[in-house]
Amino acid sequence: MLFSRDANPAKHVSTSLWRGLSSLTRFALFSCSIFILFLTCVSSPVFAAPDPLHKQLQGSQHVLMMRHADAPGYSDPAGFDVKDCSTQRNLGDAGKKQAREIGEWLRALGIKEARVLSSPWCRCMDTAALLHIGPVHSENSLSSFFENRGDSRNQTVELQKKIQKELITKSNKPLIMVTHQVNIQAFTGEGVGSGQMVLVQVNSKGQYVSHRLIKID
Question: How far apart are alpha carbons 181 and 152 in whole angstroms?
Fold first, then answer.
């Protein structure tokens, strides 16, 4: 016969080599293998899964920032009045539906009551109201400064102060802020789409530390 029943000659070679080693050498090799395995397990980092969104928002280090829901068009008409919704770019039917669905998603997560602050622009106030997770309070530091309507740097500082003031109240109610794309980008560096949310970690002074985008399941 040209071949034995075991057609893997390498297996026989490795077995012969192992048997040819002295007991002391085999023990040393075995010990080294165990030691390397131990080092691998110890040195491998173990990352804990992040706390659920509603738990993170109960502390004093996080705020949920949200861009208003879908509002057809671009910017606001010339000569608009922030106190008159009829002169502004407002939510369409799709945007209203989007805001309601986001509110349902938040409530399903356990966020049923929150401190809700909003830019005074009608598309933001309407988005915040349609979430149905608490009374909506107008906040000027969340106002849009798109197309040079305000000072982005100074307004962002004012937003930091507002966040600091809200978070030191030790309330267990999550802090949710509805604003504009330019405001969120100035604060976090992240560009967001209509209705998109960002969980922002801040320090004790309300200043940005880190963030992550929130994906709705």
Answer: 12
Q: Is 174 helix (H, G, I), strand (E, B) or coil?
A: coil
Q: Could you tell me which CATH class the domain 53-214 is placed in?
A: alpha beta
Q: What CA–CA distance (Å, rounded) separates 128 from 91? A: 12
What's the full length of the chain, in residues?
Answer: 217
For 37-67, give the DSSP string: HHHHHHHS--PPPPPPHHHHTTSSSEEEEEE
- The yes-or-no verdict on residue 51 having pLDDT over 70 is no
Rounded Cα distance between 85 and 175, Å, is 25
pTM of the model: 0.75
Reply yes or no on whether the pLDDT at 199 is more than 60: yes
- H or E stretch covering 141: none
Radius of gyration of the chain (CA): 29
Give the model's pLDDT for residue 44.
37
| Amino acid 132: pLDDT | 97
Q: Are strands 197-202 and 175-179 parallel, antiparallel or unpaired?
A: unpaired
In this structure, of 46-55, 89-98, 101-110, 143-152, the range with the lowest mean pLDDT score is 46-55
Dihedral angle sign, alpha carbons of residues 89, 93, 94, 95: positive
For 55, 68, 118, 186, 203, the CA distances from 89, given in Å and listed in that order, are: 35, 11, 16, 22, 34
Give the whole-angstrom CA distance, residue 108 versus residue 146: 33
